[in-house]
Amino acid sequence: MYLEALTKIPGVSGDEGMVRDFILEQIKDDVDEIIQDSIGNLLCLKKGIGENKKKVLVAAHMDEVGLIISKIGDDGFLKFKSVGSIDPRVMISKKVFIGKENIPGVIGAKAIHLQKKSERDSVPKESDLYIDIGAQDKESAEALVEIGDYAVFDGAFVEFGNGFVKAKALDDRVGCDILISLAKSKTAYPFDLYLAFTVQEEVGTRGARLLANRICPDIAIVLEGTTCSDVAGCEEREYSTKAGGGAALSIIDRGTYYNKELVQALYETAKRHEIPVQYKKTATGGNDAAAIHVSAGGVKVAAVSVPARYIHSPSSVIHMSDYQAVLDLVQTFLQEGITL
Amino acid sequence: MINLLKTLSDMGGISGFEGAVAPKIGELLKAYCDDITVDKGGNVVGMIYAEKKDAPTVMIEAHMDGIGLMVKEITDRGFLTFVPIGGIDPRILPSCEVVVCGKKELYGVIGAKPPHLQSADDRKKAPKMEDMAIDIGMTKEEAMQVVSVGDMVYFKTEAMELANGLFSGKYLDDRAGVVSLLHCLEQLKGKKLPFHLAVLCAAQEEVGLRGAVMGTYNIAPTVAFVVDVCHGNTPDSGSDSIFKPGSGTVLSLGPNIHPGLSFLAKKVAEEKEIPFSVDVDGGDTGTDAWAVQVSGTGVATLLLSIPLRYMHTTVETLSIDDVKATGNLLAEMLLTIKPEDYEICILKR
Hints:
The complex is a heterodimer. By secondary structure, chain A is an alpha+beta fold. Chain A has helices spanning about 5-10, 15-25, 115-120, 140, 170-185, 205-215, 260-270, 290, 320-335, and strands at about 35, 40-45, 55-60, 65-70, 80-85, 95-100, 105, 150-155, 160, 165, 190-200, 220-225, 245-250, 275-280, 300-310, 315-320. In chain A, strands 1-2-11-3-12-15-13-14 form an eight-stranded mixed sheet, with helices on both faces. Chain A has a five-stranded antiparallel sheet with strand order 5-4-8-6-7. Chain B is of the alpha+beta class. Chain B is about 30% helix and about 25% strand. In chain B, a hairpin with a 5-residue loop joins strand 4 (about 70-75) and strand 5. At the A-B interface, strand 7 of A face strand 7 and strand 10 of B.
């Protein structure tokens, strides 16, 4: 399992190179063909056995939400824009690492002592926030950071409580890690298995769009980290998924109607093998399936996700039993569940 | 100095629970002091005795407590609700990492309702403390075994170096002050002073200067030098009583400060070329100096401050040079003041 190493690598949408290099290093000897396309997707083929083979695509995205430096002020502070959707409320009082050299910085907040009453009650806008790297002025900041550099939040990988893990970028390095396991598996399938590590999911499922057109798969399964709202402040009726509740199957979200037969087959496979499984109960969010299911004239698609509390924050939390459930379900389904 | 700042900043020890950091500070003081005690208020007191038993006492002081949280309730689903200890800005809490000091130290993340389940109006509002809870990854039954209501919670953020000698950590207010005292003691090593020197690392500053009240009463100094932090410059800070990290130590003036001491401090800083700025407070400096000044029958008090950005967040940021400048000025002043200076302090203002 490479989950810890994977979550530590910076890979904001548009800057996935280091994640891709790491993955490539792990799997290059385990697959039959590797294609890297112009946008940065990594596509690996595991050839199947037999004739008239169908094509199955399993995809996970390499990119994570993060920041991009947009301006260096005369005072040496850095302005930034978010890449992907991040609630500005989770940015305050956090450590960040910028660019290839991992230059450390902090996103501070005006000390509570200096705030006016109205400031205390309001949410700062992203445009009000800035990164402090310790630079005295513009010149000393420019020696360390360039406009266009990406930044990630501090992302220590911590195991805690009863089987939980906290890290950054769990959405979707969990999916990447499961794909690596599939790549390393010695199982031979009666179909060609395409394992796709995509880019730019968080800014509009840009990478997946190109992939599906290239492969024209018969079916596709998207592996994801998805919202999990079994948290303090939420009523049970508001839960989208539950941590520890098993692999989450999507029925519908903002981007996709998932293929009913495929989702049903996945659910039945899980039940047959006593793999914990749940349905995602909200229709919000979206993932690479949105791009894949309308590509190449239409592709049957399902999404299997690991529930992640506080998703898109520097401290996302998953339960490792759910990670295992997604891995088990996908492996089992590929081995026996598919009727194409 | 970086290691020292990091060690102390990364430890627990919120107001009222200084036991988490006090032994470490005691151990650090041991290298310089004749004896170390922990008083009834939880303060760590180091003493360096003068040869003459009836010599007066001079005190240097910084507070060792930090702000934090306290467990209020274990919910049915095992989340921990909390109350603030000290001046906490609720806006720094979402997705903040913490350590819950239960029967053992437990890792936790502060969570809240996800944005997509909030109304558009709520999304524009600052998070309220009562709407957040600590996720320790346990059920209620599991949590009850290791967590109790009233357990203290401290922030997990580890300190790190930034560019140009700046340094960021969660409890630099006022562990950096403690480090400046240690830096001062290092400069004084091997030198005989004509007074007893008391080093007070005070508890409970953040909840009302309480440790300093008790500690100063016990020590009964004639003169006291207090070190705390002041606000550092940021794009949104304005410029009133704001100082740039790296610009030196900050010397306060006003009713809280004995004019004889501030005169002396300015003179010494200029002579020894120690960088400093001057700040003015019309009354309460908001630091232990305010309590120290009116302890016992009165203490001539001076306040030196270290500029600190983002005070009371988990990324408080300062310049290591300012910590050094503060410790250097303390040491130079202690080497300069003579018995007649104490007389001035007692009799004239």
